[in-house]
């Protein structure tokens, strides 16, 4: 394995970190691996399977390098490979964290971590929660290892091992699988990611994340054979062509970015820059408006519901949006951005807060109901994107609107028609969908 100093002269290797199910400690182990490898002086390129916005921020914090999303449901295979190749360039190792269990997918059976590992031709490092089991771990691992011939479980990491005797029992049982055991991490209460609001709070808002990351890095360095782990990695995909992404929203795109509007896919911004667009950023929480020269404004998702009073008082932000509308700039909001474009937002306590008022929409989160899933989106709008798009929806709030033409007609992953999404008024538009890619 190359060092950081000569990484640009050698190709990167890579692997996928997966588990039998959610809650196995996959994220904790991945964070520890990234931090431990980084402390060895390696340049590590982190990535996350699927549409998750939060885990990539944690992964990037651990690796000291921005993480990207690789979504085998929403992205075409050639885009997935091209993005992975681009991201791995100049790095020693590409580390991709999976989502849920290895074979868990969307409702149509597509988009699993296994699908991504197969598309990238990368081996799987399998994290198994050993708590409350001993010899039964062997048939569990054997079943996963032989389920798909195009997916290779190349190594195992046991998590939450209780005692030395427990470890001996596990090791003895797993010998029959023939899969190398890379390490056994003991059960430690401090190896739990600090509680996150609804599972969705950024690292800077999690008390104790820095100390937790130190503990995870030391645990991985102490109990996992990192040399063996690095040796099992396969070559990362090579860059055959630049990844195809959605066109920029304009020549100069002003993008809201702060704690209330933090959900941005790096591959979209990179694609827009590569297409020659100028990107500028502003903070609505600091009462900043979009640049006066911008011909497009993007309000991404985030947590406006946690900042209702501040956003309601952000008069310069509101005035800037109205000025952009009046000069016929394209204004597009996703999820939290869609909420901010409305007339009012009702927070969890039932208190209403005035928003920008560019769309006749009121959103509320005082009656939370989770809406979650992939979406195929059709549109006839000013968006400079193909009429068919792939996206994802995840929110607890709801929207009430009257007489507003929808932005998207939507199908779920199974092709079942959903209610029309969002709304558009001239060149102002938004919805709860997070757009990821064209099919």
From TrEMBL:
GO molecular function: ATP binding; cobyrinic acid a,c-diamide synthase activity; hydrogenobyrinic acid a,c-diamide synthase (glutamine-hydrolysing) activity
CobQ/CobB/MinD/ParA nucleotide binding domain span: 16-197
SUPFAM superfamilies listed in its UniProt record: Class I glutamine amidotransferase-like, P-loop containing nucleoside triphosphate hydrolases
Pathway it works in: Cofactor biosynthesis; adenosylcobalamin biosynthesis; cob(II)yrinate a,c-diamide from precorrin-2 (aerobic route): step 9/10
Site entry (Increases nucleophilicity of active site Cys), positions: 434
Reactions accelerated catalytically: hydrogenobyrinate + 2 L-glutamine + 2 ATP + 2 H2O = hydrogenobyrinate a,c-diamide + 2 L-glutamate + 2 ADP + 2 phosphate + 2 H(+)
UniProt entry keywords in alphabetical sequence: ATP-binding, Cobalamin biosynthesis, Glutamine amidotransferase, Ligase, Magnesium, Nucleotide-binding
Catalytic center residues: 335 (nucleophile)
CDD domains assigned to the protein according to its UniProt record, in alphabetical order: CobB_N (cd05388)
Miscellaneous comment in the UniProt entry for this protein: The a and c carboxylates of hydrogenobyrinate are activated for nucleophilic attack via formation of a phosphorylated intermediate by ATP. CobB catalyzes first the amidation of the c-carboxylate, and then that of the a-carboxylate.
Family to which the UniProt record says this protein belongs: Belongs to the CobB/CobQ family. CobQ subfamily.
Protein name in the entry: Hydrogenobyrinate a,c-diamide synthase
Lineage: Bacteria, Pseudomonadati, Pseudomonadota, Alphaproteobacteria, Hyphomicrobiales
